[in-house]
Amino acid sequence: MIQQWLLVAPKQLRCNILKSLQDAPTTSHLGFAKTCDRIRRKYYWPGLYGSVRRYVSHCSECQRGKSAFQFPLGQHHPIKPPNIPFAKIVIDLLGRFPVTKIGNRLIIACADYLKKFTVTKALPVAEAIELAKFLVEEIILKYGATREMIRDSRRSFLSHLIKNIN
User: Fold this and answer.
1) CB count, 10 Å around CB of 19?
2) CB 23 within 8 A of CB 30
3) What stretches in the chain show pLDDT beneath 70?
4) Parallel, antiparallel, or unpaired: how do β-strands 43-44 and 7-8 relate?
5) Given this model, what pLDDT does residue 19 score?
6) Within a 13 Å sphere around the CA of 79, how many CA atoms are in the beta-carbon half?
7) % helix / strand / coil in the chain, to the nearest 5?
8) pLDDT at residue 6, as a whole number
């Protein structure tokens, strides 16, 4: 591995370094990550990342060129509502509650995305057959087939039986 020596930039020159690497016509406002990479090739100073972040956040060219915000994978984001009731439903299992007298310990909840109408039922176990039975008897036969189902990633929801119902 080749060791590279870096210049430790004094406080008085840091602003000039930022300007020369960020605002020069040949660099065209690269944004935070690329500006940091370019500076780190030649220079070092304590708090370099903070300096670059502040500089870039106040640069109108960088802000204009910044891509539109996208939600990181796995995080919540808004979902466009459908035009008709029960075209899109959201379904989830709640619990491991204390066992009832008849042996139920879970609640399955299904909500229509447009009207927010919710159907619930107590269940003893989270097996695919129980979930499919709920979907067919309590949702599809009463309100019609759904076009889209938003569900969690539990194994019982991912079963082939549930996928085939949707």
Assistant:
1) 11
2) no
3) 1-3, 24-28, 62-77, 79, 152-166
4) parallel
5) 84
6) 14
7) 35, 15, 45
8) 86
